[in-house]
Amino acid sequence: MSARLAQTGRSHVVLERGRIASTWRTQRWDSFRLNTPRWMNRVAGELLPGAPGSFGTADALIAGLERLAEALPVYERVEVLRARPDGGAWELETTGWSFIADDLVVASGFQNVPRKPSFADDLPAELTQLHVADYRRPDDVQGAALVVGGGQSGLQVAEDLLLGGRRVFLATSRVGRLPRRYRGRDAFEWLRDGGQLDLPTEQADPTMIGGAPPQISGDGQTLSYQRLAKDGATLLGRATGWDGRRLTLASDLGSNVWYADEVSAMFREMWDRRGDRRLAPAPEADPADEPARHLYGLEGPSSIDLAANGISTIVWATGFGPSIDWLPAGALDDRGRPQLPGLHAIGAPWLTHRTSASLYGMASDADRVASAIAAVDLRIAA
């Protein structure tokens, strides 16, 4: 956003409560890689090293964002405590100073406040509980681990723990899956060429908007429930609560595996309809993406005794919320869209289109906001 405003010549400042790329520094595990290939990360752009199809590390992205910020008016360790509209402008109170701004852009993060289920507080004190924002490496986990959540982070952390030699239990959930590659191309190439990366929110299925992003890896290989089970993970149904002795589970294990397989098949069929099969390579063998029909009939246990299974650590891969408590109530709607004059937002999922929350799509949203602010300036000047 700052780079786009600088290009238009608009005077502005960026207030960062921590350091540049703060959540990339503090909420990622050691082996983390971006799910999106380098060509998709338009925010860092050429400042992110590597081949177009490679997957960058968090450290590489941090370095790229630091270089991007070198020529921009970024003030680190200045937290906005409160913002309120004041006579057509915005008054901001911060840990450093207070000032008035004609326009205010909310870029404080819509997926960086860790969320846990309410029953997490009922679990035994001797059990170590980590959110994926706190998890760093397998060596920090003693004994077996239970990963709760079937989204991207849950599967990637479960894989990291397995590679680190830990016994892993995975409480699944209803999340679709993207095959990493198909007919010689990355999934995001198919989505880009089919217009899906820029799909306007108004044209999307409401269930797509409200659902979790599909499972996908950052290593160039398909990541799936069946792949983790083959590598040694014990799959369970969705975690639903704590009964005083055991973690209770839904009987949806098989249906969760089936749903992930169905979504993957839907993507492949869609890409086949839009491509020319005579010109495209034949589908490659991908065991991790083969339908796991032998698992569809499984309900899974109704509960699990954590102590009896040697589980000492739970990793909650249960999502993040927005960091917008410094705004007045009602300033943004439930999709992050501004509701007050002079207020703008960037980075919210499905804000304007499918990839509004990614390093690919937020670049076009920044262009949109910069143009809107410039248009206001022109009207005032006229």
Structural account:
It is a single chain. The chain has about 375 residues and is an alpha/beta fold. The chain contains 9 helices and 19 strands. It has helices at about 1-10, 20-25, 60-70, 150-165, 185-195, 205-210, 225-230, 255-275, 360-380, and strands at about 15, 75, 80-85, 90-95, 100, 105, 115, 130, 145-150, 170, 180, 185, 235, 240, 245-250, 305, 310-315, 320, 345. Strands 8-17-9-10-13 form a 5-stranded parallel sheet. Strands 3-4-5 form a 3-stranded antiparallel sheet, with no helix packed on it. The chain has a 3-stranded antiparallel sheet with strand order 14-15-16, with no helix packed on it. Strand 9, helix 4 and strand 10 form a beta-alpha-beta unit. The longest helix is centred in the C-terminal third of the chain and has 22 residues, at about 255-275. The radius of gyration is 22 Å and the shape is globular. Residues about 380 have low confidence and may be disordered.
What attributes does this structure have?
9 helices, globular, alpha/beta, 3-stranded antiparallel β-sheet, 25% helix, disordered C terminus
Provide a short characterization of the protein structure:
The chain has nine helices and 19 strands. The chain has 382 residues and is α/β, with parallel strands linked by helices.
